[in-house]
Amino acid sequence: MRGGEKLIPSYEQDNLFLISPEKLTDRIDVFFHQPSYYYLLKTLKEKENQKTCTLKNLNDFEKIPNFESAIGDTKQYKYIEISSIDGERGFIMAGEWDEGTREQLADRAKVPLKENDVLFSKPFRSLKKVAIAPKELDGQLASSGFYGIRPKDYAEACLLWAILRSRIVQKQFSHLSSGYTQRELNEEYLKEYLVIPIPANKDAMAKHIAQEIKKAKQARAQELTSISAILEAPNEILK
């Protein structure tokens, strides 16, 4: 209703707001039109005008093309699903994958991987599952439940990994997810609406992120060693 802001004092809040008729095009779902989403986009545009960042869209990055037919492919692959990703840490969990030929694996085994590829999950419940393909998965496969980006190098992979897991992009993922029975990211909407801010100091930031990833992986290795020692301790009674 035009002029409805006079009747709804808190219309700028996400739980109660008005939608301009001009904005009702192909997206009529409530989440897409929440004021905080538009405020984020406006802020990012202001930051770009201030030369703090450059705004990119998904078409600015190389997409990993999916395999089609599996007929005649007898190679043995390692295959990762969305469940293979540690959502809290954003790492692919070692050994958490299936193995087999493409005919033996799930129909979703369609994304051919190279080392440093960046994957992000499309289902709404798994949006935080963003990961970088490690060396041991070079030449292997991932589920078509991921959208895959092929960066230029490891530095760009680290930068994209952090940006895609950040609140800036995760909020966009939440608003861009669509569907009635199972919300997920639609590739068409991603390419049209997703804004990826690349910081002006991208080289320094990528280096910093890579260093922090290394520390996190070292800490994770120590954590697993300690847990193993804890579980082994009670076995002393058998000696």
Short summary of the structure?
With 239 residues, the chain is an alpha+beta fold. It contains 5 helices and 14 strands.
Key terms for this structure?
239 residues; disordered N terminus; 5 helices; alpha+beta
Q: What distance separates the N and C termini? A: 78 Å
Amount of helix: 25-40%
Number of DSSP E strands: 14
In the CATH hierarchy, the architecture of the domain at 58-223 is: Alpha-Beta Complex
Task: Report the biggest beta sheet as strand number plus sense, adding barrel if it closes.
Answer: 4 strands, antiparallel
Number of contiguous helices = 5
Q: Decide which structural class fits the backbone.
A: alpha+beta
Strand content: 15-25%
Average pLDDT, rounded to a whole number, is: 87
Query: Element order, helices and strands?
Result: EEHEEEEEEEEEEEHHHEH
Side by side, the strands of the main sheet go 4-13-10-11
Tell me the overall shape: globular
Oligomer: single chain
Determine the CATH superfamily of the domain at 58-223: DNA methylase specificity domains
Rg calc: 21 Å
CATH class of the domain at 58-223: Alpha Beta
Low-confidence stretches: 1-11
- Looking at the structure, the CATH topology of the domain at 58-223 is Adenine-n6-DNA-methyltransferase TaqI, Chain A, domain 2
